[in-house]
Amino acid sequence: MNQFKLVKLVDLLSFVTLALMISTGALLEFTLPTRSGPTAVWGLTRHQWGDIHSWISLLFLLLMSTHLVLHFRFIKTAIAGQATREQKYRLAIGIVALITLLALAVAPLMAPVDNSVKSGSGYRHLQ
Fold this sequence. Notes:
By secondary structure, this protein is mainly α. It is built from four helices and no strands. It has helices spanning 3-31, 46-70, 72-79, 85-110.
């Protein structure tokens, strides 16, 4: 398999795992929220879906690392200042996307914790 086909395969698999990661995250957040009781979707509990979500996330991280390795030559050329105008635009978009993803990843760690919620009430009932 040549590098072009490998890049396309990695990109396709990355997109699929991203879609799965988003859907399992939404399932955990909205369909099976914390303290949702003994509920299940397709026979899987919240914790089992959480495990699936974690494994999909790790696969996505692996695919994104592979994506960066496959594009190393482009990254090296762009950093060295030898990129074309189009490549510079692509690099700028990539940097903005990376900063956005890092900000989104860190945001939950920086958010304040509200301990005033009564146990068992869940966040769905908060006004």
